[in-house]
## 1
Amino acid sequence: MDNEMFSMVLDTLKKIEREKLSLETRLEMDSKGDFPEELIRFMLGPDIGLHLVFIPSQYGGLGASVLQVAKISEEMAKIDMAIATSFLAICLGMDPIRVGGTEEQKEKYIRRIADEGLIVGYGVTEPEAGSNVQALKTKAERVLDEKDQIKGYRINGQKQFITNGGVADLHTILADTPEGPSFFIIENGTEGLLPGKHEDKHGIRASNTAPITLEDVYVPAENLVGCVEGDGLKQANRVFGYTRLMVATFGLAAGMSSLEKVISYAKERIQFGKPLTQKQGYTHKLLVPNAVRLEAARAYIEEIATRIDSGEEDLQVEGSIAKYFATEVGDAMANDGIQALGGYGYIREYEVEKIKRDAKIATIFEG
Ligand SMILES: Cc1cc2nc3c(=O)[nH]c(=O)nc-3n(C[C@H](O)[C@H](O)[C@H](O)COP(=O)(O)OP(=O)(O)OC[C@H]3O[C@@H](n4cnc5c(N)ncnc54)[C@H](O)[C@@H]3O)c2cc1C
């Protein structure tokens, strides 16, 4: 994506914030905890097409670099992490196809995600398989034709905490085949695919999170990602360097957003005759250590993004380091942000308490 288009995307985000996501709207979305489907569909629609940022150009996307995606992801999460999470899940849901799909699957599904603006869900976690994905119990049994060839799979199991789970048009679901865990592409509305109740959450309350039950879901063999059994964990692992980096940008976004709000508050807030920004006991406890670590997190995220862009592979460890560091410091700054506003920090309309609740998820999901 050239620089002009990159600037246009960033401007578009600012416009969406101004026109559709005022502070009042964000607080209302948070309070109700309802998924803003109309807004997300608008952002995926022909006028905006924000999802195209995450899609390679050969399948109709904008072909952004990882460094550009990281910046856009940070800006989205700074506006509202629930909205950014919904887009992250679309990207995650597409990733097994992007890294492991056959050319035919990529042409068919990635192009559809690009052209139709589909909402996608990534179904890996299960009630008893969280950090330890290998403990998955969802089973995909082969269904044979009259010549004993595999014509499809029958899937049974349970998925937990799936972002976009109740609203997705398309799901990539991890299930255990005779040769091991494998991703399957399943359309919404397929018989036996049953999304559960949208969870009432601590933070990112406007993102849709739902369990999914799979009861005898029949999936044709051509929807097995890569058309080879047993490659699912390899496919999930291949994108960790990239996807964990995106979650790292969420931590950075939460921290920066809180820090900026604290700085403007502390410049105006007079206590003991001076603005709080002039009290070193305040700035050097609540702001400076966090600001330093946030800048270090940004530098590391940018370095890893640049290395991925230059073609380096197997940066899963570096992606995990970026996620760990940036989300911990983001969470710490978000916590200090409440303290820095005193009693006002505890009041919803100042937003720092929402940022703190939203920030916590970044230390939990994506491992
Ligand atoms: C809002 C939300 C959205 C989500 N979206 C998705 C999604 O779209 N798709 C999807 O597949 N999943 C999703 N998840 C699931 C998420 O990725 C898991 O919750 C996460 O991986 C942790 O799994 P768990 O909750 O089962 O915790 P557990 O694995 O039970 O872990 C509990 C705690 O123990 C720690 N722990 C685990 N193992 C070890 C160990 N060996 N040593 C030390 N500590 C350990 C963990 O870090 C954690 O702090 C989502 C979760 C939430 C809450």
## 2
Amino acid sequence: MPIETLFPLAIYYEDLPDAAKHQQTLLDAVLQLEQSGAERRNYPEMAWTGDLHGVEQIHTNPDFAWIVGQVEQHTANYLLELGVDLNKVDLYIQRAWPIVSRTEQEVGAHCHNTAHISAVYYIKVPAEGTYDPGRLVFIDEARVNEVSPGLGSENTDIIAEDNYLNQLQAAYLPIEGRLLMFPAKQRHAVTMNETEELRVSLSFDIVLTANGAASGAYEFLTPPPSQWQKFKSGGLS
Ligand SMILES: [Fe+2]
């Protein structure tokens, strides 16, 4: 009996051909930033994330110029695939930061609420083997096939067999040198790095705004920052 599946989540990826050439430069830059960042603010079992430690502007750092160029190019490709008219939007990198996940560290579930597209680049991934290098887990919040809410939860537990129609998570194995993009509102997490090696990635928050004649004319597209006016009072009366 056939089953149709609709509404696929579009996850773009590209294995960058020059990845190996740039790996050491990027790795050195990230580890240097980690050293010079703010005092550690999160729990030891959480990966070091630059945005929590004063390192969230790597897109302005010349050491990251190559990957920033790649992110720009592939964001355009991704949006073209999604049918977006690139003549009507400006694209911005709003924030960008490194993530260093050491042994037994992970990243909790979150979405990137201030952005529209999330990009991840894997600088260094522990070799695949007995131990898991930490997977990017996409969490299905829409639960489109959960015909009775909570069906598969441990409080109900009436799913007899896990299959592709009742999964609420998909775990994506990171690939060194791969650039990945997905909607920033898509909830995700990174599982524990079970290896003894470093797992190092970069995260980019990308924003679309209206441009040209479309500026400010669309209810659901952010007007360009050039049209914004900061409170002259600074918001204080
Ligand atoms: Fe994230």
## 3
Amino acid sequence: MKDMALDHVLSIKDLTVFRGAAKILDRVTLALGQGETLALVGESGAGKSTIATAIMRLLENARVTGSATLAGEGDLFTLSERKMVKLRGRRLSMIFQDAGTALNPSYTVGRQLGTTLQRIHGLSKAEAWKQAIELFTSVGINDPEGRMTAFPHQLSGGMQQRVMVAIALAGSPDLLLADEPTSALDVTIQAQIVRLILQLTRERGASCVFVLHDLALASQACDRIVVLYAGQVVESGPARDVLERHRHPYTRQLKSCVLEIGAKDLVAPEGTVPSHDQMPIGCRFCTRCPRAVARCADQAPPLVPARQTATGPLDHHIACWNPE
Ligand SMILES: Nc1ncnc2c1ncn2[C@@H]1O[C@H](COP(=O)(O)OP(=O)(O)OP(=O)(O)O)[C@@H](O)[C@H]1O
Ligand code: SF4
Ligand SMILES: [Mg+2]
């Protein structure tokens, strides 16, 4: 992949995360342009949340290598913690998968949003209160004034997620990392929250890395898709190419699961992801792949352009020795 750090808001190169001896992420490379939305797709445990948390530099008990370049700031992994504190909430912001644990149970949601607004914009308490109500309105919280004095446990899971969205948007970040709400919320509410986040980021011209389980939504709503398997990128590119002209056997399996079952949610393909202490040294998908050839078990395939055209390689990449 050419070095795109200069013309991208975010460029991640060879991001590798170890937890003890386990390689949770392995040489993850991706890039995101101004105003683009990128979907991270893959089964549970693929490493989607780990990527988002690593970008925020909030991973605990993990060793991180590689780089994550944010336009105008340089490599986030080498910045001081003081600088990161300044960037979080202002230039990059994250909406966590589980709002229940991300919100502080001891403070009202109005106070949590208000103090964020005061810290980021230097507003007075009264100004922050007024702006908090406006933000609660924009994320679809009904009776926003009344909700300001509610504690998180007094709100439904969907409302808690909306509060999280408001807090994440308080500093008008130009990069939003949104981890899809878990199944703790029912599917309709999840879809509403996902659509709300996409709409608000688009309106603000921000870029968004979105963890999504819904492949159909990823293709409709996102510009780019990155398919992850066991901590590795197996296919990435413009959403339409990945969905309609995919070449990796795992992408096909993900897609056919959705189509066969007619479900919107991602249903895992047959078999299970190997545990980290039994990860194949070659292609991590080889234990489940119908197209495996001899070299797959002991040689890891590199991420390479999926197609060549008369004008050169396309911005669509796969890691596979025997692609479709
Ligand atoms: N705090 C932790 N300590 C040890 N291992 C962890 C920790 N957090 C995650 N992992 C491991 O890292 C891998 C990736 O986890 P991650 O949470 O990033 O997956 P995910 O793709 O977000 O999954 P899901 O769709 O279930 O949210 C998994 O194997 C998981 O068991
Ligand atoms: S490298 Fe081999 S095992 Fe891995 S996806 Fe491609 S064909 Fe299947
Ligand atoms: Mg996750």
## 4
Amino acid sequence: MKPATFDYVVPRTVAEAVEALGDTGRKAQVLAGGQSLILEMHLQRIRPELVVDINRIPELDGMSVEGDELRVGALVRHAAFEEADAVPGPLGTLLSRAVVNIAHPPIRSRGTMAGSFGWAHPASEWCAIGVALDATVEVTGPDGARAIAAGDYFLGPYRTARRPQELITAVRLPLLGENTGVGFIEHRRTHFCFAQVAVAAALTVSDGVISDARIGLVNSADRPIRARAAERSLLGTEIGPLPAGPRLPDGHPFARAGRVAAQEDAEPVAEPYADVEYKRQAIAVLVGRTLRQATTDLRSRRAAHEGDRQ
Ligand SMILES: Cc1cc2nc3c(=O)[nH]c(=O)nc-3n(C[C@H](O)[C@H](O)[C@H](O)COP(=O)(O)OP(=O)(O)OC[C@H]3O[C@@H](n4cnc5c(N)ncnc54)[C@H](O)[C@@H]3O)c2cc1C
């Protein structure tokens, strides 16, 4: 199928883009990487009257560290996160572990992190990480700029708190401190499919006990969610030696957190090849494994730090 007819503009500044989007006489869509939009237009599931191509707006490109946050401009492609040292600290590790799960290299070299927030697919890796880490979505519209907390941003599948006339200019993520270990594990049918479920975790350990836990669930509800009950179950827990072998004993705090996430936090939606019960089982297992990965990450980070000091 071919897209329906549309007008096309290429603004050179954010102000020009916002002006084009504010032309409320026409249904407009922003074109960033085009990796979701163009497909949807070809299938005529989306029929914009105006396409606003933001790829020639230099102020939207690049990422920078600002205080204790990473600011990711709206034109930064997924591929920018493939090397763990592209971003400092544990956040860089988390983003590099997650990004290889997004589609395949040609899509990652065009698609953008901000575009994933614009599209708001429940199976988006970036969106679940954003919710887990309390990211901020920066938008600019006819009434000026505003910041939306990721926890308030996602309203349902493909539905967000962004107004149609607003442009996402950047996504801001906390860098995470050196006492934080991170993990990301995804489960999907074939290599390039969207996740059936995936889990992002960031565990902060102070004086030997978990002082902060963040768990983001991908494709485990009608939107990306944070597993708050599971997080609460971990606070104050002492992390001892990790059991050998892939399976965590049922009584282990990470296994318990997995069950809590699956039963209390997740609201899985059935899909072909993954009914609700299957997804709950996958979430329980993946949460436990991802917490284990985060612990190993923290321990190797600390060991490397000790090595540096000797
Ligand atoms: C085969 C295939 C497999 C894929 N697998 C995955 C996967 O596993 N995980 C995953 O997360 N994604 C996956 N994707 C989607 C891909 O990651 C897209 O790149 C992403 O969803 C959207 O980014 P984009 O920059 O391409 O946005 P576009 O396609 O250009 O836009 C998508 C939507 O977001 C809006 N938008 C984009 N940027 C902005 C902005 N700055 N301000 C306001 N609105 C904006 C657009 O108007 C549009 O509605 C896959 C895509 C394909 C084709």
